[in-house]
Specification:
This protein is mostly helical. The protein has one domain. Helices cover about 70% and strands about 5% of the residues. The protein contains 12 helices and 4 strands, in the order ααααβαββαβαααααα. It has a two-stranded antiparallel sheet. Strand 2 and strand 3 form a beta hairpin.
C-alpha cells in the first residue's frame, strides 16, 4: 500500500508575509509610491500638472539639493525618499507658466530642512514651507492647484482607500482622520456663518491638493509632535485656523494654517522637554 506524503502549502503564508513587509513602517518607499500614484491618477484623469518638464525640474532640484546639503551639513549621503516627495508636491501644487518658481520652491523647501533648525530638528514641513513662502511672496507669478475630482469620483476613491491603508500601516492614520473630521465639522460651521451651501464648503477636500496635504504634509514624522493626543490636537488646531483664514477669504488657507500651527506646536514641545530636563537636573 502506497502512502502519499502531504506537503504543507507555504505559498500563502509567504505571500502574506511579503505583503506585510511591503506595507510595514520600515518601508520608506510607501509614501513615494503613494504620491506617485496621486500624480499619475490626477494627471491621467484631469491633467493636473502644468507640464511634465516643470514637475521633473522640481523633483530634480529637490534631489540634488538634498544630496549636496546633507553632505555639507552632516557629511553623509541621505535617503532621497523625502526629497522625492517634496519635489512631486511642488510639481503638483505650483501652477506657473515659468520654470523658475518650480526650481526656487523646491530649493527653498529642501534648504529649510537644514537651515531652519531648533535643537537639531527642522520644525516646518519642507514642501509646506516652500509653497507657503512662494505663494505669499510671489502671488503675482504663481498660483496653487485648485482642481477637484468633480463627479468623476473613482480616482478620488482609489487614492483615499490606498492612502488610508498606507497611512494606517505607517501608524499616522489618526492624524489624517482627525483632520478630515475637523475639516468637515468646520465646513458646516462656515456654511452656517456665511450662508454658503455646505457642499461648496466641503468640496475642496475632494481634490488632489488636499490629498497631498492630508497624507503627506500634516503626517510628516519629522515635523509632528510625539504623542498621539498632541498630534490630534495640533491638526484640530490647523483645521480651526484654516477655518478662520477661509472666513477672511485667504486663498491658500490650509498651507498657511499648517505653516503657523505646526512649528508653534513643535517649539512648545521642545520647551516642555527642556523644562522637564531642567527639573530633573534640579532634583537629581
Amino acid at each position: 500500500m502506497s502512502h502519499q506524503v502531504r506537503i504543507p502549502d507555504t505559498a500563502q503564508p509567504v505571500k502574506f508575509e511579503a505583503w506585510k513587509r511591503f506595507f510595514s513602517p520600515a518601508n520608506r518607499y510607501l509614501s513615494p509610491l503613494l504620491i506617485t500614484l496621486v500624480l499619475l491618477v490626477g494627471q491621467l484623469s484631469y491633467g493636473i500638472l502644468e507640464s511634465y518638464t516643470r514637475t521633473l525640474l522640481a523633483i530634480g532640484v529637490s534631489l540634488v539639493a538634498e544630496l549636496i546639503l546633507a553632505r555639507i551639513f552632516f557629511g553623509h549621503w541621505p535617503n532621497l525618499a523625502s526629497a522625492y516627495i517634496t519635489g512631486i508636491s511642488v510639481g503638483i501644487l505650483v501652477r506657473s507658466p515659468a520654470f523658475w518658481p518650480y526650481a526656487l520652491c523646491a530649493l527653498i523647501s529642501i534648504t529649510s530642512k537644514y537651515v531652519l533648525r531648533v535643537h537639531g530638528r527642522h520644525i516646518w514641513n519642507p514642501s509646506n514651507f516652500g509653497i507657503s513662502v512662494l505663494f505669499f511672496l510671489a502671488s503675482g507669478a504663481v498660483a496653487g492647484l485648485s482642481i477637484q475630482w468633480g463627479n468623476f469620483v473613482w480616482p478620488m476613491i482609489v487614492i483615499w482607500v490606498l492612502g488610508s491603508v498606507i497611512i494606517w500601516r505607517l501608524r499616522r492614520f489618526h492624524i489624517s482622520a482627525t483632520y478630515v473630521v475637523s475639516f468637515l465639522a468646520f465646513a458646516f460651521l462656515r456654511s452656517w456663518i456665511t450662508g454658503d451651501p455646505w457642499q461648496s464648503e466641503i468640496s475642496p477636500i475632494t481634490g488632489p491638493m488636499y490629498q497631498l496635504f492630508i497624507f503627506f504634509m500634516i503626517t510628516d514624522p519629522k515635523t509632528t509632535v510625539r504623542s498621539k493626543t498632541g498630534q490630534c490636537l495640533v491638526v484640530f488646531a490647523v483645521a480651526a485656523v484654516e477655518m478662520l483664514l477661509r472666513l477672511h477669504q485667504v486663498v491658500y488657507a490650509p498651507f498657511y494654517a499648517l505653516f503657523l500651527v505646526g512649528p508653534a506646536a513643535m517649539l512648545l514641545e521642545m520647551w516642555k522637554d527642556s523644562r522637564r530636563a531642567r527639573l530633573l537636573v534640579a532634583h537629581a
